[in-house]
Design a protein that fits this description.
3 helices, mainly alpha, single chain, about 90 residues
């Protein structure tokens, strides 16, 4: 069940990410006069890379901000290998 939820979240994240970064690239291309203008594609790619960098930094900050939760004794016993159980 957890693997299915993980794969679903990854698929949704990929679809939303492509849509958002594509919108950023298209906005830069439109503002530059279209893809036939010199440097327009380079400017659009640079904007997408900056957006990816910002999202990566925000993701890392969110990961570090999450509280650490320690497993209870019963959870540790359930996840321990069979050879180490009494």
């Amino acid at each position: 069940m957890v693997t299915g939820a993980n794969m679903f979240a990854r698929s949704i994240g990929s679809a939303v990410g492509v849509a958002v970064f594509g919108a950023v690239a298209n906005a830069i291309l439109d503002a530059s006069g279209g893809p036939n203008q010199p440097g327009a594609v380079v400017d659009a790619a640079a904007a997408v890379f900056v957006a990816v960098l910002v999202v990566g930094v925000l993701t890392a900050a969110a990961a570090f901000a999450m509280p650490r939760v320690h497993a209870s004794k019963s959870e540790e016993e359930e996840t321990a290998p069979l050879s180490s159980r009494p």
